[in-house]
């Protein structure tokens, strides 16, 4: 048993920490960005566009979430957070599928929480220690802003930004999974996945 505990501790120390920059200046820049951008807003400007998108995505989401009302509420929250962060909501859906399979109570082996697998230390970093990362709106606000930050930092390069989000810089295993989820399930219009 002690050997197993030691192995788990070693493994957790060896794993990259999700969305935690190694560079202290980058970490401070992301902390400031999160602090300034987490807020609420409505994302749909046109009712018809909202209905079309929600009906389409609800049918796609049914394999993960059975209850239609829950699906629509979830999709509205995802669309809202993605829109505030200038992200395609379909990209965010792809990230969520890979990160948690739409399980709001998911916790990774390194402690990341919620559907977008956000590290809890960010709450203290931005002075919001009472935020609950298993509350979808909160989780999406953090996750979308973190992804937005990395997309800006990587000049829109999706694979590199996703690798930073996942803490796997220099590798494409994670970003390729997100790409496949987007391509196979969430795509509505092209995204620039080129290297």
Automatic annotation (TrEMBL):
What InterPro entries does the database record attribute to this sequence? Answer: Lysozyme-like_dom_sf, Transglycosylase_SLT_dom_1
- Coiled-coil segments, which residues? none
Put simply, this protein is called: Lytic transglycosylase domain-containing protein
Q: Which organism is it from?
A: Seongchinamella unica
Family designation = Belongs to the transglycosylase Slt family.
Q: Which residues form the signal peptide?
A: 1-19
Keyword list (alphabetical) reads:
Signal
Pfam families the record matches: SLT
Task: Give start and end of each Transglycosylase SLT domain.
Answer: 78-171
């Amino acid at each position: 048993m002690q050997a197993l505990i030691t192995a788990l501790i070693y493994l957790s120390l060896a794993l990259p920490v999700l969305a935690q920059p190694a560079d202290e200046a980058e970490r401070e820049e992301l902390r400031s960005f999160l602090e300034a951008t987490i807020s609420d807003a409505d994302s749909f400007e046109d009712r018809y566009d909202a209905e079309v998108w929600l009906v389409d995505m609800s049918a796609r989401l049914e394999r993960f979430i059975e209850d239609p009302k829950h699906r629509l509420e979830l999709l509205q929250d995802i669309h809202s957070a993605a829109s505030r962060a200038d992200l395609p909501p379909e990209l965010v859906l792809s990230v969520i599928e890979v990160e948690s399979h739409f399980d709001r109570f998911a916790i990774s082996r390194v402690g990341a929480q919620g559907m977008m697998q956000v590290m809890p230390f960010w709450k203290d970093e931005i002075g919001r220690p009472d935020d609950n990362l298993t509350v979808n709106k909160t989780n999406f606000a953090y996750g979308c802003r973190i992804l937005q930050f990395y997309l800006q930092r990587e000049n829109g390069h999706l694979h590199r930004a996703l690798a930073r989000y996942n803490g796997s810089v220099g590798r494409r295993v994670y970003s390729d999974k997100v790409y496949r989820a987007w391509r196979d399930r969430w795509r509505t219009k092209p995204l620039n996945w080129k290297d």
